[in-house]
Amino acid sequence: MEGGGGAGPACKHHSHGPHQPQARNWHSIHKDQSKIQAAFPLVEDYSSCDIVKATQYGILERCKELVEAGYDVRQPDKENVTLLHWAAINNRLDLVKFYISKGAVVDQLGGDLNSTPLHWAIRQGHLSMVILLLKCGADPTLIDGEGYSSIHLAVVFQHMPIIAYLISKGQSVDTTDFSGQTPLMLSAQKVIGPEPTGFLLKFNPSLSAVDKIQKNTALHWAVTAGNVNAVELLLDAGSNLDIKNVKGDTPLDLAHQIQNRLLIHMLTQEEKMRIRKNSRLLRMLAKYEFFLLLLSSLTLMWAIGYIMDLSSDSWLLKGSLLLFIFFGISLLTRQFVELKNLKYLPAIFMLSSIFWLSMTWFVWFLPDLADTIFQIPFILSVMGLLYYFYKTWRTDPGYIKVSEEERRKSIVTLAEAGHLDFRTFCTSCLVKKPLRSMHCIACNSCTARYDQHCLWTGQCIGVGNHYYFILFLLFLTMVGVWMVYGTLLYWSEHCATTYRQDGAWTYFTQIVSCSPWVLYIFTLVSFHTSWSSLMLIIQLYQIAFLGLTSHERLNLMIQSKCSKHAASLRKTPYNHGCFQNLADFFQCSCFGMFKPNIVDWTKQYTLTFHPAKGKNVHCV
Ligand SMILES: [Zn+2]
Ligand SMILES: [Zn+2]
C-alpha cells in the first residue's frame, strides 16, 4: 500500500481486517477519538511524512502543504483508497472539510469492500464524522461490497446514535439492502441480544416486510438465528405468526426444524394467547375486567370478615375456610387476569378497603355516634379520600409526550450539538429528558418532576398529580384516625372489659370474641393509617424543607454515601426556603403573601429560573 505501510495496526484492521461487529454502548463513541489518537504517537518531525500518513495523524498543515504543491486529492492509492477515506475512518473533521473544498469526491467507492468514506465512518461509530459527511452531500443509500447501506452498517456494528440520526435525517427505517433485508431483519439475524432490535422497533418498522430471496420476515430471521431476545421483542410488537417464507415455512416451522425447544414453546404460547384473545367471552370479560376484579375483591374482603365473625368457636374450621378462599382466588386470578392488569390489584384493594371501612362506620359505629358532629367530618373525609384517590390515579403525572416530528428534530439537534448521550437523552422514549424527569420502567415513559411510581394507583407520581397525591395521603390519614376513634368507642361500649382492669391479654381476647369483624377492620385501618401518615410526614418534609422529590432525595443520599464530600440535601437549586417551597408546590400565593414560581417541568431543560439561588448546584 502506497504510504500506508506505517499506518499502524488500527488503520490496517479497519481497511482490510475482518469486520466483526463489536458490542458498543452509547458512551463508547466518545472514546474512539482518543483511542485512535493514542494508537498514533505524536510524530516529532512531520515535515517529511507522506500525505496518507499525515492524513491518518491529522496533520492539517502538512496535508495543506502537499496539496498546494500539486497532490491531487482525488487520487486513490494502490488499493483504491482515497485520502477522504483515511480522514473519515480516523475522524479528522478538519481534513475532511479541507479535502472536500479541494474537490474530493464525497461518495468515492474504495477499499476491499468497495465502501464510501461514510461507510468507513459508520463502521467506526464516528457520529460527528457521519454528520459532517451527510452535510457535505454523502448519500446514505449507497450499498457497499457486502450489500449493506449506511443504516444496515450502523445496525450490524450496533451504533444506536447513528441509527437514530440516520432515521431522523429521513432514512426510511425499512430501507432494504442488496438482498432486500430491512435493518430490523438484519438486526434479528445478525445481532444476538435485545439491541438494536428493541431500539429499531421504537421507530415503527414494518413487521411483515419480507426479503427478496428467502421471503423471510424479521421473526423468521430471529428464529433461524436462535435469537431469543429478538423473538420475544418481535412477538410483543405483534409480529404475524402465519406468514410463510419461500419454502412455505412459518416461524414455528423453522423453530421445529432447528429443534429449539425454547422458541417452540414461546411461539406456541403466543399462538394460544392470541386465539384466546379472540374468544368472544374473554373479550367481554376483558372489557369489564376492572369492575369484575373490584367485585371479587369486595366479596373476598367481606368473606374473610364473615368467616372470622362466624359463631363457631373452632379456629381450625375458620382457618381452613380462609385458606380455601385464598387458593380459589389466586387460581382464578392466574387464569383470568391478564398480566398487565395485575397492576390494578393494589388500587382495587384500596377501593375495597374504603368501601368496607365506610360500611363498618355506618353499620357498627353509627348507632353509638348519634351526634352529627362525628358524622359530617367523617363523610367529608371519605368523599375527599375517594375524590383525591381518583384524581391521583387518573391525572396525567406529566408523561413526556412528543410527536414523531418533534422527536426526529430533537435527535438531529442533539446529535449535531454533540449531546446525544444518556444523561440528556432517554434512549427508551427517544426524547430529550427535561430537568428533574426520570424514565419509569413500569409506565415505559419519562415523567416530569418524577417523585415515585405509586403502587396504589399503578401510575407515576409526577408534576401533574403530586399535589393530589399529598391530599390523598392526608384524607386517608384522616379517615384512618376517625376509624380508630370509632373502633375504640365501639369496644368501650360493647366489650365487657377495659384495658386498665383486666390487663392486655384478657382485653385482647375479649375484643376478639366481642366482634372479630371490628378487629379485622381495625387491622386494615391500622395498616393504611400507618403507611399513609408516615409517607405524608416524609413528603411534607421533603416538599417544605428540602424542595426535593423522593427520587431526588434518594439519589442525593446515595451520592453522599459514595463520595467523600457529603452533599447537603438543603443546598440544592430547588430549595427556596420553607414557605416559598410550599407556595411553589401548591401554586398558592396565600392571599398575596408569596409569589409562586411557575415552571413548566415538562419543558424545562436548564437551570434558568432563580439564577441567584442556583449557586450550589448538585447534579440530582
Ligand atoms: Zn423515557
Ligand atoms: Zn411509573
Automatic annotation (TrEMBL):
Signal peptide, first to last residue: none
Enzyme class: transferase
Pfam families, sorted: Ank_2 (PF12796), DHHC (PF01529)
Region (Disordered) residue spans: 1-24
SMART domains membership: ANK (SM00248)
A GO CC term assigned to this protein in UniProt: endoplasmic reticulum
Record field: transmembrane: 290-308, 314-332, 344-366, 372-390, 467-485, 505-527
Reactions that this protein is recorded to catalyse: L-cysteinyl-[protein] + hexadecanoyl-CoA = S-hexadecanoyl-L-cysteinyl-[protein] + CoA
InterPro entries: Ankyrin_rpt, Ankyrin_rpt-contain_sf, Palmitoyltrfase_DHHC
Palmitoyltransferase DHHC domain sequence ranges: 421-555
Main location: membrane
MF terms (GO), sorted A to Z: magnesium ion transmembrane transporter activity; protein-cysteine S-palmitoyltransferase activity
Subcellular location: Cytoplasmic vesicle membrane; Golgi apparatus membrane
Source taxon at top rank: Eukaryota
ANK repeats: 79-111, 113-145, 146-178, 214-246
Domain notes: The DHHC domain is required for palmitoyltransferase activity.
Protein family per UniProt: Belongs to the DHHC palmitoyltransferase family. AKR/ZDHHC17 subfamily.
Name listed for the protein in its UniProt record: Palmitoyltransferase
Annotated organism of origin: Terrapene triunguis (Three-toed box turtle)
Gene: ZDHHC13
